[in-house]
Specification:
- The chain is α/β, with parallel strands linked by helices.
């Protein structure tokens, strides 16, 4: 069941995070990059076209990621937060099988070859 369209939003920091996740997914959520830290106004601006869709915040385990996460929690308290292990620091550096497990646990479809 490859490339099922899904009405989900995954918020990541950068293009490398987005590309890493795209290589694992067996559905097609909208993946939005913040391109670094972001204000609440800018966050609302980029997410407003997707009003009502579930938001998954998958951000790096570093200062920048935590700053973005705090803005997301304040502006979108219903958002689902996904966390990489701090030992990998960044989503883009996290092994694919680990990412796949995190995504699967959040009910996001991943290609079976990446499942542990």
């Amino acid at each position: 069941m490859a490339n099922v369209f899904s009405e989900k939003i995954i918020l990541v920091e950068g293009r490398s995070d987005k590309l890493r996740l795209l290589s694992l997914l067996d559905e097609t959520p909208e993946i939005i990059c913040t391109n670094g830290t972001i204000s609440n106004v800018k966050l609302e601006e980029i997410l407003s076209p997707y009003d009502g869709l579930p938001i998954y915040a998958f951000l790096d385990a570093d200062k920048s990621g935590e700053q973005i996460r705090s803005v997301v929690k304040k502006e979108y308290p219903e958002a689902i937060h996904l966390y990489t292990n701090p030992m990998y620091c960044e989503v883009a550096n996290t092994p694919k099988k680990v990412l796949a497990s995190i995504l699967k646990n959040a009910n996001i479809l991943v290609k079976k070859e990446f499942l542990l």
